[in-house]
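User: Before I run my own analysis I want an independent prediction to cross-check against. Here's the chain; please return only the structure tokens and, at the end, one sentence I can use as a sanity check.
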Amino acid sequence: MNFRKRGRSVVDTIFILALFAVFMISALFIVLFGARIYKKIVADADTNYNARTAIAYFSEKLRQHDTADGVEVIRNGDAPVLRLTEVYGDNIYYTYLYESDGYIKEITSPADYEPMYDTGQNILPVSSFLVEKTGELLYRFDITDEDGNRLDFYVALCSHAQGQT
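Assistant: Structure tokens:
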């Protein structure tokens, strides 16, 4: 066997450099493609999280207040407000859920006080919020998040005493 150094030509060097360049370009495209896929997965996960959070939040709030006259849709000017009634002893409290300054907000106050809507606690960032009563025990929510993703869902109450005094 002949192990002595063989003379390399310019073609051998260019071939090796070209092969290395192809490898590096392929690796770069794979990394860029993977980063784009990862970014899309994270964005989809955020959208799904926001949707699940909104559905769970409103469903739970309505079910907690599923009593006669416990849930009501009122208006603050043109904006819909979900008013939830709670009774503690002889005191009545209202919890208001509404959209203000790009957030769904919540505020609780005694029934005899007019709420200051701009002081509510931020719950979820949104660009629009609509709630309406579509049936005796059925409420429709139409929420658009800050990224423009629209979520339209219904929550049904179970109380057959709803609306009775």
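Sanity check: Helices lie at 10-64.
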